[in-house]
Design goal:
4 helices; about 25% strand; alpha+beta; three-stranded antiparallel beta sheet; about 110 residues; elongated
């Protein structure tokens, strides 16, 4: 098993948001197009169970988002002028699109004292 795979198996999926990363370094975050798995499970559950459950729910919820939203259209809802500027410069807004996903290690959660 690769190191990356072992690390992935130890991290809780917190969730994430749709973003557009602009060439000038700016970020347009569509906070309303999000997945939030972190608060979905009881902190009393064993860590490995929380890792597995948040991964499953995160994937399910992300797939549901893809069916519910046209991501580029949602970007235009909040950031039309920025996405229009990309198009004016011959760029496809979809090429600037990403879904930023956050994860948390057990040690990091303990340090948060949540």
């Amino acid at each position: 098993m690769s190191l990356l795979l072992r690390v992935r198996r130890t991290l809780i999926s917190v969730g994430g948001q749709l973003q557009f990363r602009l060439p000038d370094g700016g970020t347009c975050e569509c906070y309303w197009v999000d997945v939030d798995t972190y608060k979905s499970f009881d902190k009393a559950l064993p860590w490995s169970e929380r890792v597995n459950r948040t991964a499953e729910v995160g994937l399910r919820d992300f797939e549901a988002l893809q069916e519910r939203f046209d991501f580029v259209a949602e970007g235009r809802v909040g950031f039309a002028s920025y996405l229009d500027a990309l198009v004016a410069h011959g760029r496809d807004p979809a090429d600037s699109m990403c879904f930023v996903w956050y994860v948390l290690s057990e040690d990091a959660e303990k340090a948060l004292k949540v």
